[in-house]
Design a protein that fits this description.
This protein is 92% helix and 0% strand. It is mostly helical. α2 packs across α3.
């Protein structure tokens, strides 16, 4: 009864009365005290449910922030890699041009 009521979010008055009667008969408490205990248990269950929802919401927000930071890091890394590749390509081209010029002078000198 408690599990189904916790899942639904509320308990019918018939179920509350039955639980209070069951608690009263098993513990020897007066009906009013048993009803009070049932209400306390239901209040604690609702409080636990609310705390679990709050914790899940907090975890969701934290994971969303972590995913955003991760995606931003990937974009920054891709940009840096592209710039480094462009600079490396330019340096390679300049080195090859210098190498070809020095080779052509050597060849020209050797032939001429």
């Amino acid at each position: 009864i408690l599990t189904i009521s916790a899942a639904n979010g509320e308990m019918s008055s018939d179920d509350k009365a039955y639980l209070a009667q069951l608690v009263a008969s098993r513990t020897g408490l007066p009906q009013a005290e048993a009803q009070k205990r049932v209400d306390e248990v239901l209040a604690r269950a609702e409080d636990a449910k609310n705390k679990a929802k709050a914790a899940a919401d907090k975890a969701r927000k934290a994971s969303a922030a972590a995913a955003l930071v991760g995606a931003l890091s990937l974009v920054i890394g891709a940009f840096i890699a592209a710039v480094a590749a462009a600079l490396g390509g330019r340096q390679r081209d300049e080195d090859e041009a210098g190498y070809l010029r020095s080779d052509s002078r050597t060849v020209t000198t050797a032939v001429g």
